[in-house]
Design goal:
The protein is mainly α and 357 residues long. Helix content is 62%, strand content 3%. Among the domains are: 69 residues, no CATH class; 173 residues, Cytochrome P450 (Cytochrome p450), CATH 1.10.630.10. It starts with a helix and ends in a 5-residue tail after the last helix.
Amino acid sequence: MQGDMELLFISALLLLTLFVSFFLHLVFLYGSTAAHHNLPPGKLGFPIVGETLEFLSMGCRGTPEKFIEERTAKYSTEVFKTSLLGETTAVLCGAAGNKFLFSNGNKLVTSWWPRNVEKIFPTSLQTSTKEESMKMRKLLPGFLKPEALQKYVGVMDSIAKKHFEDGWDLKSEVVVFPLAKRYTFMVACRLFMSIEDPNHDPNHVAKFADPFHDLLAGVISLPINLPGTPLNKAIKAAETIRKELLAMVKQRKIDLAENKVSSMHDILSHMLTTTDENGKYMTELDVADKILGLLIGGHDTASAAITFIVKYLAELPHVYNQVLKEQIEIATGKKRGELLRWDDLQKMKHSWNVQVK
């Protein structure tokens, strides 16, 4: 009897929550006609969920572009509104939209974090998103400008060679995207934290390499934090990874104090030895969160780019043959075991300037 009463109470509570959510959605959607005069055309979909399910289902089917194409054809080729992941969203399309976004940074356009990111990284977002963005812009140029990237060419080449030896079985079918993600994760760990081999380091990266997938899946998911949901798994995964990163941060502080490494050894050391405009150092937790953010930010984007390169090389044999010939010429001029240098990249004319027919 008591169990039935509890079930009835929970059901009534869920119905009440759904009714209130639906009512508020209608109020915000239709309550103020004047407030919506300047909004772009489009629809917001269902309360809370919006059009997220349709967006994700098209992505799972491998046709995410259809979500955009259908709405640009129906509403506008320039901009339309929708609701994704619990957030009202304006989607800018075409060259004009991209130019507007990328030419108005910190002017008409500022950084913004969805609710999922706020829940996964609560400590890093105590200040405004604009302040956080400016802090990272000041920290990273010394490591990511073209002059600094030159010294990473050999490192990335050595990681790539080992990656091909260990992960690519050319006798069977190769699924590129997971392998590309593994490679970019290895490169990021090496460049950001100087971890030599993430896949064979049981004391460090191996402990957070597994939950990293759950974390990435939760960043782009419905903002529902209940047991078993992608967001809940992502929050738990972030806590696990953060603990391991904190241990690495503490050890690096000891190494810096003992002059075993320099402040410019990698991004981790640079963050620990750099002060803000008030002369304050970042806390260990803040450094761990920023390293984690960098790992996430550069992971899927670089992996997707590598995957598309492999895809187009497979689909365009005339391009593939030009690139292969060029790579053979560069390899022929090198001694056995010699790594790529910055000068070698300047010789890769076909790799960057091919004409797609």
